[in-house]
Design a protein that fits this description.
Four Helix Bundle (Hemerythrin (Met), subunit A), 0% strand, mainly alpha, 82% helix, binds fe (ii) ion, 179 residues
């Protein structure tokens, strides 16, 4: 990750990338409602990114980081919430996949909005937790080692490819349709 030194910076960069894809999805969903056309290729790519990157690569490394502060009673309920929201987000990705399959533009818009709203709030909580607790309590090397252990070398390669896919998804929304 260019420009990132602390392991938590990589997670923050991933949050930015996920946000940008969600913004593109919401713009595309609005366009689908207005123009009555669901772009199957766009949604196939967006869903591939969400399933492989947000809900797999990112969550796996993040949950390994959560494990390092699992004994901290002050944040136990926050960690439970965040883990539950990872599962909830996967459910919303599944719902989105179903309505994309049905070419139902209005339901796609609603599902994309629900997912973006959940992840926006979720990521704000995580960023605060990273700053307030993890950066202060866990040495950088331990964070980095936990994140590396959580995923395979193959997963790392897939993640880099999915980052390229994210840029493609974002670029697929024309400027006139972007939020
Ligand atoms: Fe998360
Ligand atoms: Fe996250």
């Amino acid at each position: 990750m260019v420009g990132s030194t602390h392991p938590l910076d990589a997670l923050r960069d991933e949050h930015d990338r996920i946000f940008r894809v969600l913004t593109a999805m919401r713009a595309e969903a609005q366009s689908a409602v207005v123009h009555g056309r669901v772009d199957a290729d766009f949604w196939s790519d967006a869903l591939r990114f969400l399933a492989g990157y947000a809900a797999h690569w990112h969550d796996a490394r993040e949950e390994a980081v959560f494990d390092l502060v699992a004994e901290n009673d002050e944040i136990a309920s926050t960690l439970r919430l965040l883990r539950a929201e990872h599962i909830q987000a996967r459910g919303l990705v599944h719902e989105l996949r179903v309505v994309v399959g049905a070419r139902d533009a209005r339901s796609i818009e609603l599902a994309a909005h629900a997912l973006a709203a959940l992840l926006h709030r979720h990521i704000l909580i995580e960023e605060e937790l990273f700053q307030r607790v993890l950066r202060r309590q866990i040495p950088e090397a331990r964070l980095g080692a936990a994140m590396r252990r959580a995923v395979s070398d193959e997963a790392e390669c897939r993640a880099r490819a999915l980052e390229e896919l994210a840029e493609h998804v974002i670029a697929s929304v024309s400027p006139s349709r972007a939020c």
